[in-house]
Automatic annotation (TrEMBL):
Superkingdom as given in the UniProt entry: Bacteria
Organism: Adhaeribacter swui
Official protein name in the record: Hsp20 family protein
Annotated SHSP domain residues: 23-128
InterPro entries in UniProt: A-crystallin/Hsp20_dom, HSP20-like_chaperone
Pfam families linked: HSP20
Family stated for the protein in its record: Belongs to the small heat shock protein (HSP20) family.
CDD domains: ACD_sHsps_p23-like
Length: 129
């Protein structure tokens, strides 16, 4: 039994199978996980065979939308949606510091808390007579 060793070919064929499955009424099944950490949270999205260029992230006030779409070629304006999910962010998230990174075939949207949320601050007590 011969194994296909061409990694690029395998990625392309996997992507084509995803596209055909979606066109045939199936769906691309992403894995979405939210990790809550001490200084923030991370939304992790893993969709097999989807490139980082396919993802789009939009923030409208406290509504964060993460989506992925397949374009048949780079110049095409037509896109086939693969995934879309909306998250309502709590007030402790610092919206100005949200960032995203694509690493190990996984999109990570990092949501830091406001620094005042996790810093301890002493409050002086005024004494009035």
């Amino acid at each position: 039994m011969k194994l296909i060793k061409n990694k690029e070919f395998l990625q392309q064929i996997a992507h084509q199978i995803d596209v055909l499955n979606t066109l045939g009424g199936g769906i691309a099944l992403p894995q979405v996980k939210v990790d809550k950490l001490e200084k923030g949270a991370i939304i992790r999205v893993f969709i097999p065979s989807v490139s980082p260029e396919a993802f789009h992230i939009a923030l409208n006030q406290n509504q964060l939308t993460v989506m992925a779409a397949h374009r048949f070629d780079e110049e095409s304006e037509t896109a086939m949606p693969l995934f879309s999910q909306q998250f309502t962010l709590p007030p402790q998230i610092d919206l100005s510091r949200i960032d995203a990174v694509f690493e190990n075939h996984e999109l990570q949207v990092r949501l830091p808390y406001h620094t005042s949320v996790y810093k301890t601050r002493n409050i002086d007590i005024d004494i009035k007579d």
